[in-house]
UniProtKB/TrEMBL annotation:
It comes from the Bacteria. It comes from Streptomyces olivaceus. This is Restriction endonuclease. The lineage of its organism: Bacteria, Bacillati, Actinomycetota, Actinomycetes, Kitasatosporales. The keyword DNA damage does not apply. Residues 132-163 have a biased composition (Pro residues).
Length: 492
């Protein structure tokens, strides 16, 4: 009996079927079943009759099942005692060795994957070291069909298909091809914003020369990675800048308000307005500080001689808009976000940052007087009787470094310790009750805080940390806020 033929004339594979002779007898024995490792319960090989681990498991189970009963008394029934014994013995002497064999096989398989491939003989008889070629690559190429008879006309070979080139991409004969497009041109916009923020000269100068709350906020802005983080950081830094400008101006105005001159009375009137804002309902917001700076700018425009020591709030100069306009633009954006119109995507966040960044950088430039009036946190003060002066050691609270550098001063007037001062023309001007150093129980350390409000009738002052926004309370500063000068419109 001839074997079945395929279409190409070659014998067709039997696929496991045996060929029978003319009398129906098998001419070849049946092929044995291929052994598949760990095919049964992931522990035993298939077929089970060829796996020693399966035989060992069955053996120990049967031994325990037919073991003779002992005369020792037991609280369990006989059948349950036997069942538990079978489970324990099978697990220890059957399942556990099979599991160990599985782990050993996996380990050997991983080693073979990491080892170089075995040597394979090449057609010329040489030995090739490397991975074994796949079966597909070992199949010889198909035989080419014989040439058609001479009488048949040759079949033309069609040209390879090419996509049509648009007119805008065609190049004239002899012209050079355009260089490939830059892959970074399509990069997300927030990556460009991040790069420009980290390399900004204005922000770098502010980190070195501004008071610590502003410098730290600018540092947080430059370290922000995503567009959303940059958006939140630039608004927080803008509010911090407005607070620092306000409290520094208020301290200088209170110092220069002592006297009987009309200009001094106007300066005290502004301090009284800030007192009324802090004693009002609720906590001070971004708008509280910008509204007060707006009044300071109006007074500076109408009476330039009223505030010789406060150059920042002056509204007009030869280099663009005043400080208060930039701060108001940032305040409007903060209110926009607070009322639910926050950016919803990274692209929108980057776009908002590009829109408000010029206002923030210009506000830093306009508030440059803060770099000339440094903040100091006094540490020690000792009186020198011979010269009637005070030797003071103070920490320089400028720059973004959290550890303030110690500096020594000799002043003619006494100062309190652990209190913030601003240095104006070499003389200390107290910043309390607007700024203070308070211990924060949540942070476990001293934090630079600003006065956010107090009750008009009595009680402690509410302080907020510049760094984390934690709310602290100080009874002494509450009394100091209520003791600020009161003028018309400043609150009772």
């Amino acid at each position: 009996m001839k074997p079945p033929l395929a279409r190409d004339g070659t014998p067709r594979a039997s696929h496991g079927r045996t060929e029978r002779g003319p009398h129906g007898s098998d001419t070849a024995p049946p092929a044995p079943r291929a052994k598949r490792r760990n095919a049964v319960m992931v522990l035993y090989d298939s077929p089970l009759y060829g796996d020693w681990a399966a035989w060992m498991t069955c053996f120990w189970g049967l031994v325990m099942a037919w073991a003779p009963e002992t005369d020792e008394p037991s609280a369990l029934p006989g059948w349950l005692d036997t069942l538990l014994g079978v489970v324990v013995i099978v697990a220890l002497f059957g399942l556990l060795p099979s599991w160990l064999r599985l782990q050993l096989r996996r380990r050997r398989w991983r080693r073979r994957q990491l080892a170089p491939g075995p040597a394979a003989p090449t057609p010329t008889g040489t030995v090739h070291i490397g991975p074994v070629p796949s079966p597909q690559s070992a199949v010889p190429p198909p035989r080419m069909p014989s040439a058609p008879p001479a009488s048949a006309p040759p079949c033309p070979v069609p040209p390879p298909f090419t996509a049509p080139v648009p007119d805008e991409h065609r190049t004239a004969p002899g012209a050079r091809h355009a260089p490939p497009a830059d892959r970074t041109a399509g990069a997300p916009a927030h990556q460009d914003a991040e790069t420009s923020l980290s390399s900004s000269a204005v922000l770098a100068k502010a980190r070195d020369a501004m008071p610590h709350p502003v410098a730290r906020a600018v540092r947080t802005l430059q370290r922000a990675h995503s567009g959303k983080e940059q958006y939140e950081a630039i608004l927080d830094a803008a509010e911090t800048l407005a607070i620092c400008v306000s409290v520094t101006s208020a301290a200088l105005l209170r110092k220069h308000g002592d006297g009987a001159a009309p200009e001094n009375e106007k300066a005290l009137h502004l301090v009284s307005m800030l007192r009324g804002a802090l004693l009002g309902r609720g906590s001070a917001t971004f708008g509280t500080w910008t509204n007060w700076l707006q009044e300071v700018g109006r007074l500076a425009g109408s009476h330039p001689g009223a505030m010789p020591a406060v150059p920042a709030p002056r509204p007009d100069d030869a280099h663009g808009a005043p400080l208060i306009e930039h701060l108001n633009a940032l305040r409007v954006e903060r209110n926009r976000a607070a009322h639910g119109d926050r950016p919803q995507s990274a692209g929108e966040s980057a776009l908002r940052v590009r829109e408000i960044r010029p206002h923030f950088e210009q506000a830093l430039v306009k508030a440059g007087f803060l770099t000339r009036t440094p903040w100091l946190l006094t540490a020690t003060s000792s009186y020198r009787p011979a010269t009637r002066t005070f030797d003071v050691v103070a920490r320089d609270a400028m720059g973004d470094h959290p550890d303030f550098e110690r500096r020594k001063f000799t002043w003619a007037e006494p100062v309190a310790t652990n209190v913030f001062y601003v240095l104006d023309a070499g003389a200390p001007v107290i910043l309390s009750p607007f700024v203070a150093s308070q211990f924060c129980a949540q942070c476990g350390q001293d934090e630079v805080c600003y006065a956010a409000g107090a009750d008009r009738t009595g009680g402690p002052a509410d302080l907020k940390s510049f760094a984390r926004g934690h709310t602290l309370h100080s009874p002494d500063l509450g009394d100091e806020i209520r003791a600020l000068p009161v003028r018309g419109g400043g609150g009772g």
